[in-house]
Design goal:
single chain, two-stranded antiparallel ribbon, globular, Aminopeptidase, 13-stranded mixed β-sheet, 32% helix
Length: 355
């Protein structure tokens, strides 16, 4: 089976990478020290992998033909915490809102979050679903171009052309909603939700910092939960809840405030080489966030933020973001930096058509 190439979007840029097509799914390899084979777009697919052994055999056979991996990993569809296979299994922490009953979801929200949704309505924010087209693309570009920095880190989508923005968002259009927040005909926030059976996944969420007092992010999530309930969707997911040992982060706090909680699913790891086996024994497959203690991760995140702020001040861009105000808004309304899908998942595009 020949190795081909597909386009992958990582950190806001599209690149071509080797990929192996097996029964309609593409498998790519990521990682440095430990090269890990992953199912492309796995987070957004409608069904889980049905024949993992075929993938394992094909990957082992391809090691001398360009696609070399030490491990193969795949997940079980939510809420599958009970393992179906005999491979090494680890529980994956998924951020999920239970949306089968909108009233129950709403009543479990913190009082402050419910107030923020109502405040958004009172301050003139209108939420509507927008078709994929020029209006949507121009609105998203306007949000992306509000600032070259987004809450203390570089904004990977700043300055993109309309064609680039269109390319970033044209995946899964047949089963997606673009839910947008408007104030006086200006798009001030948007969310892309991908439906996959009885589970939906939040693919993008961004809002203008200049309008954070209107709480557009809270209103967008509430609308998404309501639409999921109307469609009979059991869960709305928002990436991971815990990222390895990184806990108590502003992003996790934002998710918790908006009705997301931890749901555990099974993730499988299959060693393909002796190095892959050793890496799993040493825990290297977990990556930096799974190896370092929380205190050291927090120190690194804070140091990075201070470095970017220092660079900002040197380039006379401090007026783009006011850090103290940003922190307050992060805790209550705006999605923190890292809530866009580029930070939580690599988005792909096959040779014929697909954050």
């Amino acid at each position: 089976m020949a190795v081909e190439t597909i386009e992958v979007s990582a950190n806001g840029k599209w690149v071509r990478v080797p990929a192996l097509e097996i029964r309609g799914r593409y498998i790519t390899v990521k990682g440095g020290w430990v090269k890990t084979a992953v199912i492309h777009d796995e987070w957004w697919l409608e069904s889980e992998l049905e024949d993992p052994e075929t993938c394992v055999k094909q990957l082992r056979a391809q090691r001398s033909h360009g696609l070399r991996a030490d491990l193969f990993t795949f997940s079980q569809k939510m809420p599958g915490s009970t393992p179906k296979y005999s491979y090494t299994t680890e529980l994956e922490s998924v951020a999920a809102a239970r949306t089968a009953n909108f009233k129950e979801w709403w009543e479990k929200l913190p009082q402050e979050t419910r107030k923020n949704v109502r405040r958004s309505q009172k301050r003139g924010v209108v939420i509507r679903v927008v078709e994929f087209g020029d209006e949507l693309i121009e609105g998203i570009a306007g949000i992306n171009n509000e600032s070259p920095m987004r809450q203390g880190v570089p904004n990977a989508h700043y300055g993109k052309s309309l064609e680039q923005v269109k390319k970033d968002h044209e995946s899964f259009l047949d089963r997606s909603d673009f839910i947008c927040a408007y104030f006086e005909n200006e798009m001030i926030g948007y969310m892309k939700v991908v439906y996959k059976g009885d589970v939906a996944a939040l693919l993008n969420l961004a809002a203008k910092t200049s309008h954070s007092d209107k709480r557009p992010a809270n209103a967008l999530i509430a609308t998404a939960a309501e639409r999921c309930a109307a469609r009979g969707v059991l869960y709305l997911t928002y990436g991971l809840f815990n990222y390895g040992n990184k806990r108590d982060s502003p992003l996790r706090e934002f998710k918790s405030r908006n009705g997301f909680e931890e749901v555990l699913t099974s993730r499988y790891y299959v060693p393909l080489t002796s190095w892959g086996t050793l890496s799993m024994k040493l825990g290297l497959h977990c990556g930096i966030l799974g190896i370092l203690p929380h205190s050291l991760i927090t120190f690194g995140v804070d140091a990075r933020a201070k470095w970017y702020n220092f660079k900002q001040s040197l380039s006379r861009c401090s007026s783009m973001l006011e850090r103290p105000n940003c922190i307050r808004q992060t805790e209550r309304s705006n999605p923190p930096a890292g809530s866009n899908s580029d930070s939580e998942a690599v988005n792909t595009r096959d040779g014929s058509s697909q954050q």
